[in-house]
Amino acid sequence: MHSLHTLLVQVRRLVGLLCLAGMLAGCTHVKPWERGALADSIMLPDRDPVGKQMAEHMWFSREAASGGRGVGGGGCGCN
Prior knowledge:
Layout: H1 2-25, H2 32-38, H3 49-63
């Protein structure tokens, strides 16, 4: 029983270390000449305010969601 508990602890630590290594593998340094491309307005998720508003309207109408973004909807799309 005691050795099984020890084995489970070691497996958890190994899985934790593998997850941490996986997360750290995604980190990278951005070179100064790459920063201009990342700062471009096309990289903004909400660069089109009208398109964003329409997408949000369709989202909360389709999902019957209310609240969270200051709007309410009943799912009928009539608001």
